[in-house]
Inverse folding.
């Protein structure tokens, strides 16, 4: 199983990014996917989750309205669109595959919000 995130970078406050996570090694369309993030000096935190079909999404309260999770099952890819970025959104963003019996993590992509 492989999960490869991309799309991070340095962005000014108020800016936007689209993170991607390309997966392989499992039947992507069968499993829920999520994004987590880890800010410097803090524990890893839940960001958003999307069901296997994409019909259901769930967000951490602080992300609602600014972040959008989506998926393309034909491309085995999950996305996270992040808008109105704030300095406190600076973190490494990880995608997670909720396969059974274990979950898999990507290596992360760094998002830095700074002027």
């Amino acid at each position: 199983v492989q999960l490869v995130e991309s799309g991070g970078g340095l962005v000014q406050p108020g800016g936007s990014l689209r993170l991607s996570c390309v997966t392989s090694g499992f039947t992507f369309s069968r499993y829920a996917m999520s994004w987590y993030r880890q800010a410097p000096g803090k524990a890893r935190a839940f960001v958003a989750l999307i069901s296997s079909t994409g019909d259901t999404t769930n967000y951490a309260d602080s992300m609602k309205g600014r972040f959008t999770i989506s998926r393309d099952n034909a491309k085995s890819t999950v996305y996270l669109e992040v808008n109105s970025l704030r300095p406190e959104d600076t973190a490494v963003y990880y995608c997670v595959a909720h396969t059974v019996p274990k979950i898999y993590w990507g290596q992360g992509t760094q998002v830095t919000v700074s002027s």
About this structure: The CA atoms of residues 72 and 92 lie 22 Å apart.
